[in-house]
Amino acid sequence: MADAELPEKKRRRIEDLTEKMAVDGGYDWDGRWNHVRKFLERPGPFAHPDFEPCTESLQFLLEMCKILVIGAGGLGCELLKNLALSGFRLIHVVDMDTIDISNLNRQFLFRPKDVGRPKAEVAADFINNRIPGCKVVPHYKKIQDFDESFYRQFHIIVCGLDSIIARRWMNGMLISLLSYEDGVLDPSSIIPLIDGGTEGFKGNSRVILPGMTACIDCTLELYPPQINFPMCTIASMPRLPEHCIEYARILLWPKEKPFGETSLDGDNPEHIQWVFKKSIERAAEFHITGVTYRLTQGVVKRIIPAVASTNAVIAAACSLEVFKIASSAYIPLNNYLVFNDVDGLYTYTFEAERKENCSACSQVPQNLQFPPSAKLQEVLEYLMENASLQMKSPAITTTLEGKNKTLYLQSVKSIEERTKPNLCKTLTELGLSDGQELAVADVTTPQTVLFKLNFTT
Amino acid sequence: KFQPGYLCLKLWGDHGQDTLENAHVCLINATATGTEILKNLVLPGIGAFTIVDGHTVTGEDNRAQAATELLQELNSHVSGNFVEESPEKLLDNNPDFFHRFTIVIAVQLPESTSLRLGSVLWSASIPFLVCKTYGLIGYMRLVVQEHTVIESHPDSALEDLRLDKPFAEFKNHLQSFDLESMNKKDHSHTPWIIIIAKYLEKWLSEHNYKPPQNYKEKEAFRQLIRDGIRKNENGVPEDEENFEEAIKNVNTALNQTKIPSAVEELFNSEQCNNINSESSSFWVMLRAVKDFVHSEGNRDLPVRGTIPDMIADSQKFINLQNVYRTKAMQDAAAVSTHVQRLLQSLGKVCKNASFLRVVRCRSLAEEYGVDSVNKDEITSCMDNPDSEMVFYLILRGVERFYQQHSRYPGVYNYQVEDDISKLKLCVNSVMQEYNLNVNIKDDYVHEFCRFGASEPHTVAAFIGGSAAQEAIKIISHQFVPFNNTFIYNAMLQTSATLQL
């Protein structure tokens, strides 16, 4: 196989094909979109009630429909490919990562020469070069780097993320775009969110119409918090190889600082090697077997094995929903699909319900019930541990005597030091009264969440 | 002498990868669905693929060649080949061509070709996966005579603790514990398995050697354990989490040790009882396990050897774990002597003895035969006229349409309306042939004409992912494949597995 030759040959072949097939200087050769047209131009018994077959629908798809893809990894690559091959051309993709060599066995838009480059840019280049007419715009950024004006321009947003925090943030952003007139939701302010997630052989795909159907936070209990091993086991009573690895990661690394002030990087083989060696030593002390380099990396990176096919299936389901919503050709999924192919193939489709008092989408003021003698620490823990809230590092502010006061904030060191003593103070000591409004900010939401303090006796 | 059955011997993760790297996959028809399937096999690293496709792309480029080049780029370690020939021609001139493959995957094949190829592959014992994307319907059919699964990786498996039939080494180990006289630290760090075993001994001596039988007795047993929690000087029970674990696990700990019915069935099968020079290694190993069960095993499978994690100090946990591990190794050695002449790596088979599975699919000939068609499955599914079964039936009608009209229904706009009644006739004629009395809603027939035999990429990608994963299961003998027909309804995002 002459590797250097192939890409050149392929490039020339694509150019030839494109030249032959171009019609009137455009990209669309005869019959190119036949498989899409059949669903746009023909009536059918299962189409959406609003559906009207017409030839203009294809033009809308090709020239006007704007889709945002979040993530250019395992799911993202599949999503971009499916959307481009289904006729979507105005696609933006956001991803904050660069390509790692371990990505190459799933994320098929990337080649060995692309390692180190931003995923969004390489993915966009690949699609734009291979699928004539497609104009993917990449953004090598975090989703939090954009504000409402960016997100508002899209007709549909589809997520292929591996982080629940990011999902919740995106969810919150789209909810913040909703406008209400006299308490009635303006449908034109709704941007549908299609969300896909995979874990090994399991995956799910869901359709969210913000303000109308269940949002990410409505079903937060479906994402149980990650289980961490108790510290006493790690510190003094290890039994499993994983305990030994966590010992090296959590206790030894900060203590011994083997590479100076740098934090442990799961993608750095030198770091993993160090943790591996220390884990073996620990394990030997307790006669525990089973520590391997691979296990070490898996534990440090919290890796859940990725399977190419699950990403393919879930991305396919998500792309199809984008098409259904953009074209009204069918009634979209209502609203949650679960997929599992460990034993045969299994799917389960159900309608996730909105939570009446959802902290993200319900507009119902959130209550905090605490006795006045409770310490602020308890409130903080509640915000983090409650299954429906699961905040990561909440910052609590309030208004006292007409002035804005920060009760506790973790993310800025100086403020953290200044406000830390507040954690041990009771709510009354802090000057808070029954009915007081607390504004809480957190990475899981772009907007602050308002809570009302209810004193219990 | 025994067939190597090398696929059976490769059991774990790295071994699963070995089977992939030794596999040669044949794909017939490089359509959107076909290339998606192959992409999902090339990326994880199958050894080689060969595309068989007689179609051309633009009059000049053969589809097989174009697809091969594209796919080759994805993984330089995979060897890609193509044959610019229709499968029908190959079946006419050289059916043995297909014997070199680990698995054959065919996409968008006309019925007659599927049946011909199915027959060839069935005789050669080569797994055959038939796939179709038709509008918003996806279809997969697995045809394999006998597929052995060594690692079914069940999502939730019961532990193998043998508390109802403690083996000698465990009983010995148990004697080294005296709960009453232990100090506080040891008492609260004793593994729950030991706790339950100790209290079970007590219970048995007080109840005529009968373990707790019903809910009432299990509750009493839990209380017995609860009473064993140490109390402080004020009589308040201490915080002993290991005892709480014991109480929580009473139900599962008291489960009877027994051989799963699926494995019993395997023990009773023809292949297990008639081991001869043609037997594959899977059956030989299974027979060895059966012989173990009837001798050293005392009617039980070899001990699995793993225990779940639990509250305990390191030493107590490791020691207990070693008791189980050592026993498991002994049992594996015993099984090994039953097949000493033949195989290695039996320790791994023993760990999975209760997870062995065999999947047998009916042949296409049986599915299509007038006398062997699975009428019960069809009629019972169609009690609900919106069951996914209806899509299977209409697909059969579509193939009949193709046979009669040499084209598929509704490909051009002007054909859609008229083809509805034509397709309906075809579907009904198929039903009549099989003497099936089912109600097929007109709306579905209409929708199939609307599809116009299109292959939308999103549906092709869904089938692409699903089919590739099933192919990997077949190649690696890990995880249980579907049996035998999978229908995906992309309109509602639902699916069903049917046995036809």
From TrEMBL, chain A:
Keyword Iron: no
Top-level taxonomic group: Eukaryota
Keyword annotations from UniProtKB, A to Z: ATP-binding, Ligase, Nucleotide-binding, Ubl conjugation pathway
SMART domains in the record: E2_bind
E2 binding domain segment(s): 368-456
CDD domains: Uba3_RUB
Listed pathway(s): Protein modification; protein neddylation
Single Gene Ontology MF annotation: NEDD8 activating enzyme activity
Pfam families linked: E2_bind, ThiF
Record keyword ATP-binding present: yes
Active site: 232 (glycyl thioester intermediate)
InterPro entries found in the cross-reference section: E2-binding (IPR014929), ThiF/MoeB/HesA (IPR045886), ThiF_NAD_FAD-bd (IPR000594), Ub_act_enz_dom_a_sf (IPR023318), Uba3_N (IPR030468), Ubiquitin-activating_enz (IPR035985), UBQ-activ_enz_E1_Cys_AS (IPR033127)
Catalysed transformations (reactions): ATP + [NEDD8 protein] + [E1 NEDD8-activating enzyme]-L-cysteine = AMP + diphosphate + [E1 NEDD8-activating enzyme]-S-[NEDD8 protein]-yl-L-cysteine
GO biological process terms held by the UniProt record: protein neddylation
Enzyme Commission code: 6.2.1.64
Record's GO cellular component terms: cytoplasm; nucleus
Top EC group: ligase
The family this protein is said to belong to: Belongs to the ubiquitin-activating E1 family. UBA3 subfamily.
Function: Catalytic subunit of the dimeric E1 enzyme, which activates NEDD8.
Protein name as it appears in the record: NEDD8-activating enzyme E1 catalytic subunit
Protein's organism: Gouania willdenowi (Blunt-snouted clingfish)
From TrEMBL, chain B:
Pathway: Protein modification; protein neddylation
Name recorded for this polypeptide: NEDD8-activating enzyme E1 regulatory subunit
Record carries keyword Ribonucleoprotein: no
Function (record text): Regulatory subunit of the dimeric UBA3-NAE1 E1 enzyme. E1 activates NEDD8 by first adenylating its C-terminal glycine residue with ATP, thereafter linking this residue to the side chain of the catalytic cysteine, yielding a NEDD8-UBA3 thioester and free AMP. E1 finally transfers NEDD8 to the catalytic cysteine of UBE2M.
Source organism of the structure: Gouania willdenowi
GO biological process: protein neddylation
Sequence intervals crossing the membrane: none
Gene3D superfamilies: NAD(P)-binding Rossmann-like Domain, Ubiquitin-activating enzyme E1, inactive adenylation domain, subdomain 2
InterPro entries: APP-BP1, ThiF/MoeB/HesA, Ubiquitin-activating_enz
Family that this chain belongs to: Belongs to the ubiquitin-activating E1 family. ULA1 subfamily.
Keyword terms, alphabetized: Ubl conjugation pathway
Domain of life of the organism encoding this protein: Eukaryota
Gene Ontology MF terms: NEDD8 activating enzyme activity
GO cellular component, one term: cytoplasm
